[in-house]
Write a structure and sequence with these properties.
It contains 2 helices and 18 strands. By secondary structure, the protein is mostly beta strands. It has an 18-stranded antiparallel beta barrel. The radius of gyration is 23 Å and the shape is globular.
Length: 377
């Protein structure tokens, strides 16, 4: 062992400095949360839901010379979940998973990255038609999307324009989700276009994971006094006669009012319609959906930020209201108080998409309130 250590030391001395450019930075966080559910069905279920998360990882550079750069990120999670979700089998009590794990090569205007990584783009904030791989609960505490095992490349045509391509492991018969997108600025307008082939997959955490589709879309985003954007997607289902179509679009605006330390208001409208032959994943089997979303946020002093999200289904009248308060205890330690309150404008709480009471099963839309402690280190 001593001889091996001695030989390793000699190699580090003899190798040119440019060849041992390896560096690393440790990143991690601890998260503990507990929520109480109001009237969880059935009555014998636990009223509480608890979760502990320990996230640890390394980011840094593997090699750098003559403009060639290899960098990496490896982050893993240790999870404990107790309460209603664990009791009904939605999650395991103890779990460990790779959150991120990728290596990237960069040279000039070209980048390519392989491994478990985030693929996230689009202009919308609350509803995301172009978020093919976005699994965030946007009204949650520090929402992060789940990584996908994939290969992704980017070429920058200029400082404000790029082309990207990706292949995501579908884990079903050696299939892959493949796509291409371009993005550029045209004066004050940011614009992007995307196309993707989506085969049937074994990735149930993704929306429409079991449908074969050809998808295309665009986004536009600009600002003139207020910020504004539109994000639209067309899906053509390939495994149904006649390739039936589904249409999703979002229109959004936002503005920060001169109230206190700045009151930010964001409003989005989502619309979906689909042809009769398209596989309908809506639990109520309705083919036209309309949903409004509102986000409010404002800092109070230097330690407190309050946020509130309000969603209403314009078709069935159900709604969700999700307020939260962020308090910086000290340094990188934060305490969050949050709630999720649902209901129905027409008083029918048994049939809503955003809030549904069931006497026999857990729906995930039940009203709740709780605390979350997050410490970064």
């Amino acid at each position: 062992m001593k001889a091996l250590l001695y030989l390793s030391g000699l190699l580090l001395v003899w190798l040119p400095n440019s060849l041992w450019a390896f560096d690393w930075q440790y990143e991690g966080r601890y998260r503990a949360s507990s929520q109480v559910l109001f009237d969880p069905p059935p009555s014998e279920l636990n009223r509480f839901d608890h979760e502990l998360e320990l996230r640890n990882g390394l980011v840094g550079t593997l090699y750098e010379k003559d403009g060639h750069i290899f960098d990496y990120e490896v982050v893993g999670d240790l999870l404990y979940t107790g309460g209603v979700r664990e009791e009904i089998g939605l999650v395991e009590e103890y779990d460990a998973e790779l959150f991120r794990g990728w290596v990237r090569y960069e040279k000039g205007n070209f980048k390519i990255r392989g491994g478990r990584q985030q693929i996230l783009f689009g202009a919308a904030a609350l509803f995301r038609p172009l978020g093919f791989f976005d699994t965030r609960i946007i009204s949650g505490i520090i929402p992060l999307t789940r990584g996908v095992d994939s290969l992704r490349s980017t070429y920058f045509l200029s400082d404000t324009s790029s082309i990207q391509g990706w292949a995501v492991n579908a884990k079903s018969g050696q299939r892959a989700i493949v796509g291409l997108r371009g993005e550029a600025n045209f004066g004050p307008i940011e614009a992007g276009a995307v196309l993707q082939y989506h085969p049937k997959t074994d990735l149930p955490f993704l929306a429409d994971f079991n449908l074969e589709m050809f998808q295309l879309g665009y986004h536009l985003k600009g600002e003139h006094v207020i910020g504004y954007w539109n994000e639209t997607r067309l899906d053509f289902q390939q495994d149904q006669p006649g390739d039936p179509m589904r249409f999703d679009t979002v229109f959004g605006v936002d503005y920060t009012f001169d109230v206190g330390q700045g009151l930010h208001v964001l409003l989005e409208y989502f619309f979906r319609t689909q042809e009769p032959g398209f596989t309908n994943i809506d639990p109520k089997q309705e083919r036209t959906l309309q949903v409004m979303g509102l986000q409010l946020d404002q800092p109070v002093g230097i330690d407190i930020v309050w946020r509130a999200f309000f969603f209403v289904d314009l078709v069935d009248g159900s709604f969700q209201f999700a307020p939260q308060i962020e308090y910086n205890i000290w340094g990188q330690v934060y305490l969050y108080a949050q709630a999720q309150v649902g209901g129905s404008i027409d008083g029918n709480n048994r049939t809503g998409r955003l809030f549904r009471e069931s006497p026999v099963s857990f729906t995930g839309t039940e009203s709740r309130a709780g605390l979350t402690l997050i410490a970064f280190y």
